[in-house]
């Protein structure tokens, strides 16, 4: 994307005393340079001083220097127009901008996209103190750079200057720093830093800043164009990948898929050779090689590659070879060296392919034992380098090759294929000579169908659940802390009243914060008292009086804020006392053993309080696929639906109850997936009180009337066919 060339201004030369881009004038010394303070030293007679400076400047030297700057600017512009990488451009950009300003050095800091940290990538004569990342000076300097990135504004930083506070920033060098952020669109991606000699006047410094900003615009334009070019390259690669995926998935024949992967993979990866190995039971053979119509499997090179691929597949991990095998296990080194010596391969990658879509970098990460289907083999005969882009492309297409090969090898395992064969055999019975046998079998099937469709049977929906008390209250921690005292006993049978303290927690950080706030309040009150005393003095100037009044106002506001914060902290300390939300019995067993002296987080369930006279219910987890039958039965029936259930703690006894209501919301309560909670009411007196314990598991069946025997037996299979097969048509 070309843009009109902007007009660049050379740095101002009038206020420097000599050419700022060449050697300093003899009369100019660092001791007379501009100091880091905000104010600049002024000459007693500015016009006379400027005339003296102008007289000391050689006009020819100035013109020559300006021409040199223009040449360097033209070179930078030409670099920005070329199709270079970011590193190549910055390698040429950095020394040129340093030479254009005759600076002591220059540096390019780039933001790491992954960690968002600044890294020194390109530089010329960077002060050594900035390379010592552990030093305080380097840390303060890095904070200065990050602050400039946040503001996205070019700045001048005087030598040995800085800001103080909890996280000080500053310029630890003896140079004037010129900082210019690099941006793509509105996102900062880096920073230009110029180490300029000090001593220039304000006008000259502004010229430096303007010039560096203009150079930054060139760099920004290059980075934006480079990003656009990378997008175009990436889009072209995605188009080629889509074409490759479509080709390898066109057939379900294993040989055709293997040859498509080999030939199209070589074209996509632009490598020298791509091969595909297929097999099973630890024996894998090379079935396709790019550029070859047929393979001589008895050839030594093919045998060696097949043996190597089989060994790699057994490890379930990819093999990457780029000239050294020190990182490989011993059982792979010898066959690898034998194959490399014969094939003259410089780079070799063998990636196992599996039936399941596992990650190639860690096939065993899912916890399942991977089932290999083959291997993808990539070779380079002239270049041993494995650049990150090539490795990423190989791993990406390997996942698609894995899917295509797995589909081809499993083609003969079509779902219900034996059923279709059985149907074909049954049809063949009606051929001549087999009609009697066929009619007998048909009659038996007809009788079975009549029985299944005409005879009714009780239709029940099975579900699992648990016993719950109708009235119970959970006690939660309202603040973080450490359990210090528990007032209930460990027998799980303590009767408590509403608001009664149950436990006392401790939070050392909260106590420390309260003490600190009290100390800050005392300090601010002392500060306010001191300023109130100064306010009554008559020898204060107007400026000092304003400052004293401001200090009094600030101290007053601070005290008000601290007192509000103290109230919040005190309220948090009151929450450290855990109280009962209702009257009832604490049913937790070994509460002291489980909670005492242990850290407690906000929202943690500490205890459960149950009303001793509460009604017990059953909460069933009804799977979503059965809710249609349940709601239809409730709509038709005039009476509540009957429920039969048994407790896991007493499996030999069956109890009965009725459906009370159904939760309107579906949620994942168990391994059944989405379920709705169904509450069942039953006579509590029918069950031994010792068996009525919270969360006792229950197996239940909801009686939904009578349906045909066939429907009762096969209703889930029928619904599966209706939802997953017939829906597609």
Low-pLDDT sequence parts: 1-10, 12-55
Reported for the largest beta sheet, the result is: 6 strands, antiparallel, barrel
Q: Provide the helix percentage.
A: 40-55%
What's the number of structural domains?
A: 5
Strand runs, count: 27
Strand fraction equals 15-25%
Short description:
The chain is 42% helix and 24% strand. It has 16 helices and 27 strands. Helix 2 (59-81) runs antiparallel to helix 3 (86-100), helix 6 (254-269) packs antiparallel against helix 9 (388-409) and helix 12 (508-535) packs antiparallel against helix 13 (542-574).
Description:
- Helix 7 (300-315) runs antiparallel to helix 8.
- The strands form six sheets. The chain has a six-stranded antiparallel β-barrel. A five-stranded antiparallel β-sheet has the order 2-1-7-6-3, with helices on both faces. It has a five-stranded antiparallel β-sheet with strand order 9-8-12-11-10.
- The two termini are 51 Å apart.
- The radius of gyration is 41 Å and the shape is flat.
- A hairpin with a 5-residue loop joins strand 4 and strand 5.
- With 729 residues, it is α+β, with helices and mostly antiparallel strands.
- It has five domains: 41-229, Beta-Lactamase (2-Layer Sandwich), CATH 3.30.450.40; 249-413, GAF domain (Beta-Lactamase), CATH 3.30.450.40; 418-453, no CATH class; 476-606, no CATH class; 615-728, Efflux pump adaptor protein, beta barrel domain (Elongation Factor Tu (Ef-tu), domain 3, Beta Barrel), CATH 2.40.30.
- Helix content is 42%, strand content 24%.
- The chain has 16 helices and 27 strands.
